[in-house]
Amino acid sequence: MEDYSRLLEAAIKARHNSYAPYSHFRVGAALLTKSGEIITGCNIENASYPAGICAERTALVKAVSEGKREFEAIAVAGSLEQFDEAGVLKDELTAPAFPCGICRQMLREFVDPESFLVLTAAEGGKVLKYTLAQLLPESFGPENLA
Ligand code: THU
């Protein structure tokens, strides 16, 4: 199995730029292209709540807008922010975060759901791995409109 540690590290690092003053749920994502490039994203919330965007879609729109459309995997690292006694933000993950339904569908547009991998980082270095088809079975995609 391929080693996705570089991708997971990029997702964890991208989480540092998360703008989540409303939910305090900070998420980073890292999308791997088939040519080995990594494009990162974070969630960006908004005072008008529905205008916010998830980390996974930030990474995807960055990539597609730069002409990249072939992807192998995405790594996600998200959890509620926590502070230590001194009020310093702790850089710790807790339960694994999974892409929401909208992000799953947006990814579906550009990938083969049977082979595209979704990795999610959790506490203690734990990593869960699924294909997109496992997370979005019987999905609707571009071929349905062809
Ligand atoms: N969020 C993501 O960015 N990705 C996920 O996988 C789950 C949820 C964001 C959206 C919102 O800014 C916050 O997390 C709470 O829902």
Total domain units: 1
- How many β-strands, per DSSP? 7
CATH topology title: Cytidine Deaminase, domain 2
Number of helices: 4
Query: Low-confidence runs (pLDDT<50, min 5 residues)?
Result: none
Task: Report how far the terminal alpha carbons are from each other.
Answer: 34 Å
- Helices and strands: which structural class? alpha+beta
Overview of this structure, please?
- This protein has 146 residues and is an alpha+beta fold.
- It has a single domain (5-145), classed as Cytidine Deaminase, domain 2, CATH 3.40.140.
- 23% of the residues lie in helices and 26% in strands.
- The protein has 4 helices and 7 strands.
- It has helices spanning 5-14, 55-65, 101-108, 132-135, and strands at residues 25-33, 38-42, 71-80, 82-83, 89-90, 117-121, 127-131.
- Strands 2-1-3-6-7 form a 5-stranded mixed β-sheet. The protein has a two-stranded antiparallel ribbon with strand order 4-5.
- The longest helix has 11 residues, at 55-65.
- It is globular, with a radius of gyration of 15 Å.
- The mean pLDDT is 94.
- The protein binds tetrahydrodeoxyuridine.
- The site of tetrahydrodeoxyuridine has 16 residues, from strand 1, helix 2 and strand 3.
